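Researcher: Go.
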Amino acid sequence: VATLLPQADAWRASDEEGSTELSSGTYPELDPESWLDALPVIGSLPESSIDSHESSSQGQPPEFSRPACQVYSGTTETWLSGQGFPTASSSVPDEAAAPAAAGAASDEVVATAAPPSTTAAVPRAGLICMHPYVRLPILQEGVVPPPIVLSASNFEAGNGSSVHELLLAFRYLFAKQSLNQSEVTVLVENVQELAVASAARARAAKRLRRPLQGVASIGRQFLVLDAIVSAIHVLGVPALSFMWWEAFAECFDADYRYNEPGIRTKCSGRININLANRMLAAISIYKTGKRPDDGEILFLKQLLFFSPCGPLSFRSLKWEPWRTDHSRFEEQHPAPSRCLPSGRLVAS
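Model: Structure:
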């Protein structure tokens, strides 16, 4: 069980062996140098705050038609530290590194694919912007977005709408190259409905002590905010200009972090702690009306949808459309995709 740490400005990783680190980035929430040295530990949370209905001991997840996890890793340590995206200046690990890692302890996660090429035809940044996990449509000429009609009172209770179905609707619209007037109207309606459906649930959500369960709850909030903030960017209106935005953003708690794992923490635990903390950092950015770096969004979504160590809820078939999006992108861009994370991760 990982101890929860209150969030100040960032999370500082220790130098001891097996610790989880955050990759440097544009935003202070993702910069390891900005995390504080001394953070008081929150006392143990009551057992009632632990969702006992979702546990790794539950039944086996459905079999996927592709590898369970596809995230780049030169070595397990590199992947865990959040350095998942290689750059032209980064060193490329030897192809023998993955087979060698396969002989590690049984709880290790190893990469079995060859490292990506740093000489791909398409620049890495440009390719990431093309990925369906981050790419957004534009408005067709002459389109005038209708106003988003919301108020703080809308977030006091939910509307009973399915968050998952609304996320599917956002996925459908974001897959288009451009949006016409009727599609923009639907997008605005979806923003209103998703904001009301998610705000009260997020405010009622508890901080879960176990990282695996935390990832399930935090992951849903991450996807909700990603959809809403991305839609607002498509509409071309600053989020902070909305009178209702502050009340909406306050419903999402991101002012805490999971304590870094100990030396004896299993690899799956390290992965979930790293993922949970990085999604919390991303949520902090979304709450300001901005989007995290495209590379960070892509990394987090890939890990959320493909990790064999993640919660069963995200390994279920209802998230298969998002896994299919990534697989199709790899098929359409087979050569350039080598500069994106594509290591086959298997849990032994």
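Model: Strands lie at 4-6, 69-70, 109-111, 138-139, 178-179, 256-258, 344-347.
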